[in-house]
Design goal:
Helices cover 34% and strands 13% of the residues. It starts with a helix and ends with a strand. It is of the alpha+beta class. The protein is globular and about 75 Å long.
């Protein structure tokens, strides 16, 4: 990685602040020599929901897996995550473990929160979160540990407990697992505190699960001793977020949104005092600022990824709901942009409920209430958004949950969603030295039912009907996040689905840091359905999460059922025209340099993060 080339991409103010922080670093908290957990607290936890409305199908087999501590995370398959070695801590943290672990059932098997199961590498809970070292010879994926530590399965256990079957066993498991995490992960120690985003996700899931369990629970199981320790941990999660906001010299991204939404869950659930009110007011103010900073005026997110648009929009959705619940006065501009971000998802989603994979996809969510949901399917998130608007009655758990949170809010303050459709000028593009690729359909489609969608600032265009879907990536806005860290070299690449069958499908992401060479492979032009000019990438890589911001895209013409676009990069001028017929899609390419068409030539596919399939 060339630090100087990365530095050139930084806005001057951000670069200056980073240099200052290097020269004058902030004083760090010495977590390794002090115990921050407690068995007493000045706080109580409010209830925000009424479980009476929660009716949803439960997969009992998955629940049984959770009870056996088996988890299928980011391509790991169903693996038992039990700890088989004695837990060891620093001297400062051993006493809390010895005393508080007595609240856990004698028959309970502790979980190994530090083990990355696919590589076999273990992180060190005796060292602070910022002193963890990874053995680079073992292809360690730290995200797999973080995914376990998000505790997103706990709300699923709570939803299952709203039914009579296994209720007591589920309550006991929730109590034991919560205590297990608390005693096994001292504040600021080990891998589970290495990313504040995951802390925000974890505390949100802990609180929602606790709220549901408490509504159905036996007070003998959720006793005072447990509730006190649990509540103290919730406060410490909030305090950790407050002290480790991922604002990075003002150049924040999706991580910061999840810091803020975590603080909003903490401060809406915990009883109020001066500190809690200060956290909440800060988080509300910053959520409003960051939402309008991180989303373009057409509703698309600035990370340059369709999956990250949905991820960030989910954080904003729940942040907005919690602000409305408190009677926060949100501006017309904020609510209009919220509607546009919702409209973006409704238009870009495929007829089968899945999203195209343009840019990175780490399969991230704030909540995973639906046990069997394919992680490219975002219908439940769209359903959750619909719960904000009068006249829409989604039936997913997300929609029910959001209506519960809003029961004391003022829904009339939320306007109906706006539109992101913008006109495109017809410039009568002319193509030369053409290469045409025909993709035939197994049966004809009704072309008269096609509608066109356009999000020029984000950079995605397409045509859609109940039995046809074409989406084209032109993601190249210079106002995206400065690193272009989640962008792929996929300009003028596309996804095509006809009558539920995927004829052209983006390769996905597969992995980040565990296999650097595959990370680069899946981001490259050869992994996408564009063209390949030998020796030239659309953007040069500057590390795993930096690309040079070279490529520029523009639409030349939209006419009837065709669209012509152009991509410019490092002297390459690539023009591509898509023409939709009733029985085929014609893709016509022109370029000023020798090229090869690269449609359906890549040998791998990753439908979700961590999963690698041969085509």
């Amino acid at each position: 990685m060339n630090i100087f080339k990365i530095a050139k991409q930084l806005p001057p103010k951000i670069l200056f602040k980073r240099i200052l922080n290097k020269v004058f670093p902030k004083k760090s908290i010495a977590y390794s020599v002090q115990e921050n957990r407690g068995i007493q607290t000045r706080f109580t936890i409010h209830s925000l929901i009424n479980r009476a409305d929660f009716k949803t199908d439960i997969d009992q087999e998955i629940i049984s897996n959770y009870l056996k501590h088996e988890f299928d995370l980011l391509g790991s398959g169903w693996v038992c995550r039990n700890a088989f070695n004695k837990l060891e801590f620093t001297k400062a943290h051993q006493f809390f473990f010895d005393q508080t672990s007595k609240l856990i059932s004698n028959t309970y098997q502790f979980i190994d929160w530090q083990l990355e199961v696919r590589s076999g590498f273990s992180f060190d809970v005796t060292k602070q979160y910022d002193q963890q070292k990874i053995d680079n010879t073992k292809n360690v994926d730290i995200k797999n540990c973080w995914e376990l530590g998000r505790l997103q399965h706990l709300p699923q256990l709570a939803i299952a407990a709203t039914q009579e079957n296994k209720r007591e066993a589920l309550l006991l498991e929730f109590k034991n697992q919560s205590l297990d995490f608390i005693v096994s992960n001292p504040i600021g120690m080990g891998v589970q505190w290495a990313c504040a985003m995951d802390v925000g996700i974890r505390v949100s899931n802990l609180l929602v699960a606790f709220d549901i369990f408490r509504s159905v629970g036996d007070k003998k199981l959720l006793d005072t001793a447990f509730v006190t320790v649990f509540t103290a941990s919730i406060y410490q999660h909030g305090k950790f977020l407050w002290n480790h906001l991922e604002h990075k010299e003002g150049a924040a991204g999706n991580h910061y949104l999840f810091n803020l939404v975590g603080l909003l869950f903490v401060t809406n659930y915990l009883s109020e005092d001066e500190e809690i009110i200060a956290w909440r007011e800060f988080a509300e103010k910053e959520m409003i600022v960051e939402f309008q900073k991180q989303f373009f005026s057409d509703g698309g997110n600035f990370e340059g990824s369709t999956a990250y648009h949905c991820l960030s929009a989910e954080a904003v959705l729940y942040g907005t709901v919690l602000m409305l619940k408190n009677g926060k006065n949100l501006s017309h501009a904020y609510l209009e942009l919220l509607g546009k971000s919702f409209q973006f998802m409704k238009e870009v989603i495929k007829p089968n409920g899945e999203f195209p994979q343009f840019g990175d996809n780490d399969s991230g969510r704030l909540f995973k209430f639906n046990q069997n949901q394919h992680l490219l399917n975002y219908e439940s998130l769209i359903d959750g958004f619909s719960a904000l608007y009068s006249g829409t009655r989604g039936c997913s758990f997300e929609a029910l949950f959001i209506r519960q949170l809003l029961r004391n809010g003022e829904l009339e303050k939320v306007n109906k969603e706006g539109t992101s459709r913008l006109p495109i000028t017809n410039t009568n593009a002319r193509l030369h030295d053409l290469t045409t690729t025909e993709i035939n359909f197994s049966s004809e489609i009704s072309v008269e039912k096609l509608t066109f969608f356009s999000y020029p600032e984000f950079g995605i265009y397409g045509f859609k009907s109940a039995d046809f879907y074409l989406a084209i990536s032109a993601i190249s806005n210079k106002n995206m996040h400065h690193s272009w860290g989640h962008v792929h070299n996929d300009k003028l690449s596309f996804e095509l689905q006809v009558k539920g069958e995927d004829l052209v499908l983006d390769a996905g992401t597969y992995t980040y840091s565990a296999f650097p060479e595959k990370r680069c492979l899946f981001r490259a032009s050869k992994a996408h359905h564009g063209i390949v000019v030998e020796g030239v990438e659309q953007n040069k890589s500057r590390g795993l999460f930096y690309l040079e911001r070279e490529v520029k895209c523009k639409v030349l013409e939209v006419k009837d059922l065709s669209i012509t676009l152009q991509a410019l990069y490092y002297g390459v001028e690539h023009t591509r025209k898509f023409t939709i017929l009733s029985d085929q899609l014609m893709v016509t390419d022109s370029c000023n340099k020798p090229f090869k068409v690269n449609i359906n030539t890549f040998n791998y596919h990753s439908p979700n993060y961590g999963i690698l399939q041969n085509k």
